[in-house]
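INFO worker-7 received task bundle
INFO bundle size: 2
INFO processing item 0
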Amino acid sequence: MKVNTNIFEVEDVVADLTMRLFKFSKNKYAVELLMDIGSYTDIPSYFFENSLHCTDFYEIVFFKKGNGYLELDQQRIAIDRNVIVFISPFQKRRWFVDKSKIECCFLFFQDRFLSKFFLDKLFTFRLQYFYNKVSPLFLKTADDESLRIFDVLQDLLREIKKIRSDSEHITRALLYFLLIKLNRAYAERYQLSEETKENTTAYRFKQLLTNHINQHRDIEYYAGKLAVSRVTLNKCIKAQFGMNVSEMINEFLLVEIKNRLLYSELSVKEIAYELHFSAPNHLSRFFKMLTGLSPKDFRNAYQNGMSVF
């Protein structure tokens, strides 16, 4: 079933369970625009429901106040004053918030809004807070920093509310500025590299891993795709992300397993087959080594309301 709103289209996706997919609506304004910004009151109320859903666009949500929490990629994020949440396309999430106590701004955009102008198809992969499977997917800012951020958001909002012939250039420049500033703050907070121009090998690896982790988890595959040696790849990944290649592959794979355990009814055997483990007990051994729980115990704990995040 599809539902149209002025911000996005909503589609019920039936895979292992029904999940809403929010698709970006590029025709909201007088011209085609692959970015949108607004306040909480501009978002349909069901966007913050606790039913499982995802989107096909990037989202940054800036909270002036709030309560409750968000489940995102097996992270539980407390929603509070000056919290910024970063969500990549197709990340599954559930909101558990009191909508009457929320005040926030949202920023939505599709990758093409930036890449078609900057000619850098890796740009969003260069940002530490997108496609990150290890560090927290939120940033808590100080009051003065939040004020500066909201000033930029207001500039963006004013430009979008009154579209002119050159508005796309201004909105793109402001968005680029904001994303880089947020990347600096995020990298500093979590002690990561804030470099976005060098180490292209690391960003290409992150892109490949995001797209191919379900099929490939051997280092040789990625080193071959990137035309570098294992040693060189390890050095690049360690310098950019603070871990070696094997650790990063394991973290991405663990997220895929957890997603299926939490949000599908697939058996461990079916998950092992889908993720190309040679046997179900190999998946179980891998999962317990990283989490301390068996897949069955992990699923049961979540279904019984126990915290597994």
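INFO item 0 finished
INFO processing item 1
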Amino acid sequence: MNTFDLIATTQFGLEEILAAELKALGAENTEILNRAVKFTGTLELLYKSNYLLRTCLKILKPIATFEAYNETQLYENIKKIDWSQYLTLQQTFAIDGTTSGEVFTHSKFVALKSKDAIVDQFRENCGVRPSVDPEDPDIRINIHISDINCSVSIDSTGVPLNKRGYRLEQTFAPISEVLAAGIILLSGWDRKTDFYDPMCGSGTFSIEAALLAQNIPNGQLRKFLFEKWSNFDAILWQTIKDEAEKAIIPFEGNIYATDLDKNAIEISLQNARRAGVAANIEFAEADFLQSKVKGEGGLIVMNPPYNERLKNDDIVEFYSELGTHLKHFYNGCDAWIISGNLEALKFIGLRPSRKIKLYNGQLECRLQKYELYRGSKRGGNDPLQIISPTSRR
């Protein structure tokens, strides 16, 4: 099977985790970029990457690179690409443009000029042109320009991979599914230690933990744009899905998801049912500040409220109480807390053993680890030792 270059995009701070996931799937020549990982793979790996990766947003297949100093050169170079290899007259298409630098400053302009080049090529060769559908295209083209350097890729994913298909309802300020999975992988959770999601909101941490623990593919509930490609291999695709189904394993550990908001618990439960993991999570309406560890330690992952979510409450007092409660009632645990209020994190009153810069959407956050145990460490693995979902039994 032929190999070619591919690019997996992700969120800031998750690049190394994504690279490890890719290597576990068999990717070669991995190169960490800004919010992305470049690698070499086959059509099979392209399918697997979309279906199985937990920290990836999109899989792009580069088809051309060139330099452009102005809009004319951009147009001419886009028009040189043989678009009949990727697009038929019966298919719709859309273009996503991203720009940085001083030469091209408007991504919509780049997308428009590129669209003109593509439709003009079809008109000249066929007399007619394919239609544009910006919302639900058959083929999505990605054009990235940094200064004068242009790269053109075909998007194999479509809707970003954080859209797993289970979170049809959500609470205020939910965390991205990709970010949640990345945080769990960064924590080194061993899939056996008790997992606590004490401010669960929409249930994203708990659901991602349950999916991870059982090797359930993240893409089981959704479609991908590569299924509309002219070279789509339906037999290979079905084989990959069948293998992934066989690789699912039982989970006998404990995942506890709680929230003060009764509505949040109901939303979380419905999301977990759609994901097929409701039986693996114990949901309860509860106040974390009135709770305590249930067994011999565990892993706590938490996205506590910050300014806009607390409204008039005292943010300093809340974070101080949070740290005090962890110290006295969750001894034996490791706590990973992500917050967009960097100042409030200082009032937790515990010394973090790790600090990681991340983004939840456009909001800069810090993920901080607090070791609350006495004696030897428990429940933590090297986060980069990730086992392939198709090989782990």
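INFO item 1 finished
INFO post-check item 1: Residues 4-155 form a domain with the VC0802-like fold (CATH 3.30.2130.30).
INFO post-check item 1: Residues 269 and 278 are 6 Å apart (CA to CA).
INFO worker-7 idle
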